[in-house]
Amino acid sequence: ALAGFSLDAAIARRIGVKGYGPLIGAGLGNAFSDGVAGLPEGLPAAAGVTAGAVLPVLPALVTVAMKKPLTGPYAKFVGASSALLLAASFVMETPQQHAGNDPTARTEDR
Q1: pLDDT averaged over every residue in the chain
Q2: What is the rounded distance in angstroms from the CA atom of residue 26 to the CA atom of residue 54?
Q3: Which of residues 64 and 106 earns the better pLDDT score?
Q4: 61 pLDDT above the threshold of 70
Q5: Helices 20-38 & 2-15, crossing angle to 10 degrees?
Q6: What is the pLDDT of residues 77-99, one digit of tens each?
Q7: Which residues of 4-24 are buried (b: 16+ CB within 10 A; e: fewer)?
Q8: Are 48 and 22 spatial neighbours (Cβ–Cβ below 8 Å)?
Q9: Alpha-carbon distance 22 to 2, whole Å?
Q10: Residues 6 or more apart whose Cβ sits within 8 Å of residue 104
């Protein structure tokens, strides 16, 4: 967030709207730290965690591309979209959740 705050003026000059620097900085900083934390599990796991952490930032990037301030309906769009992406991440089933992919299951149980 601090890096994004320091870049806010440059981002504002480029798109003509202030306030996106801290939001994007916090989101990307979180994605980076989550990715580094996932490295002990392997590169594919770290990449997956990083991609998942970037998802909530994507709606904000849409409004940045539109050069719109993060107020009113645009703020509601970003908030609702991010909430839906977060909820979807908990609802979606991963292949590891299937008993057939359970490495600890006995061969007879598969």
Answers
A1: 79
A2: 10
A3: 64
A4: yes
A5: 130
A6: 888 988 888 788 777 766 555 44
A7: beebbeebeeebebeebbbbb
A8: no
A9: 7
A10: none
